[in-house]
Amino acid sequence: VATQGVHKGLVGVVADVTAVSKVMPETNSLTYRGYPVQDLADQCRFEEVAYLLLEGELPTRRQLNAFRKAEAAERGISRALIRVLEEFPRKAHPMDAIRTAVSFMGMEDPEGRDTSVEATRRKALRLYAKIPTAIAAIARLRKGLRPIRPKPELGFAENIFHMFFGKVPEPAIVKAFDASMTLYAEHSFNASTFTARTVTSTQADIHAAVTAAIAALKGPLHGGANEAVMHMLKQVGTPARARGWIDDKLEHRALVMGFGHRVYRSGDSRVPTMAKYRDEVARLRGGEKWLEISRILAEEMLARKGIHPNLDFPAGPTYYMMGFEIDFFTPLFVASRITGWSAHVLEQMQDNRLIRPLSHYVGAAERKVVPLRARG
Ligand code: CMC
């Protein structure tokens, strides 16, 4: 029921100002602190982008070296956390596992109760460094394998492959993964970022905000879509079945995962760049079948519904072809988005006002309490 003055889903509501990123649906473009995201993905390493989001400027070589060194030094996770991870049920979704791991890291953090901007900046670096280690440990432990220690001499992307698989693939695969990290890093007031800002607005700490943000990211309408896309492509199975499959979905008015966006109406700015890297990974890993199914689904969705794919559509099969298990796709999104969330947490802290909207009541009219004994 539409009620006047109510903005269901906060559609079209501008909730605050931000200097972190700008989404421009009219031109299908997105900038991080003024730089087009596709240029960052092609020309920079994810570490540079992380620095840009956290510090506001692209680093000089000297600044980047110091940042990388600081991150590499913080990659280790505690024995206590590993013991906690070992106790998680094997069937647990990795998003639930990383959410709980981040919550635990908050209790262990050496500056746990310090919510100053300076301490929060240091905590953000620790989260950025430790989250991939925890995710890879979760992946190994649930298979009964020992976690692989991070290697400080490896770059951010290389180290993730090392911790998941014990080896680093060829540079083109690493570049595709690194670019996906950049494309996933930040996207203004999406649901998880707004959640992180809402928690921060109560003066709670960054681990609390990030734990809540991970919870918000899990849902299939948000970050969980990259996993849902791969399940969908596998369900379709072969290019020959793609048209019939989509006919059936649209007939039943079902959602087709990886399509549509609240802000972009004529295409997600990140898709062409991610699709370029996906295609390269498919060439190297022999995944042309997924490209062909994707091409048919995108063509049909556009022709019949006028709906374009979003970033999760090319990202899902890219991670699959790289060898990641499907339920780790959204945790990989976390490893990237921690940078955007942290930038927003810091921004919210520095110009805070409690986020507390109103609601329009439509429940029962005021009535008298009948005592329990008289209620029958
Ligand atoms: N498949 C089929 N129909 C769709 C889809 C879709 N993926 N997306 C939108 N529609 C339909 C929708 O049902 C509605 O139809 P009707 O007017 O007949 O009720 C119409 O298009 C307009 O929907 P909308 O107002 O654009 O939807 P919204 O802004 O409330 O929701 C969305 C945006 C992303 C939640 C939605 O497009 C969706 O559920 N997509 C699938 C999930 C997905 O891929 N999510 C990832 C989002 S982007 C990256 C990220 O955050 O991770």
Automatic annotation (TrEMBL):
InterPro entries in the record: 2-MeCitrate/Citrate_synth_II, Citrate_synthase, Citrate_synthase_AS, Citrate_synthase_bac-typ
Keyword tRNA processing on entry: no
Domain of life of the organism encoding this protein: Bacteria
Catalytic activity: oxaloacetate + acetyl-CoA + H2O = citrate + CoA + H(+)
GO biological process per UniProt: carbohydrate metabolic process; tricarboxylic acid cycle
This protein's UniProt keywords: Acyltransferase, Transferase
Protein family (similarity comment): Belongs to the citrate synthase family.
Protein name: Citrate synthase
Source taxonomy: Bacteria, Pseudomonadati, Pseudomonadota, Alphaproteobacteria, Acetobacterales
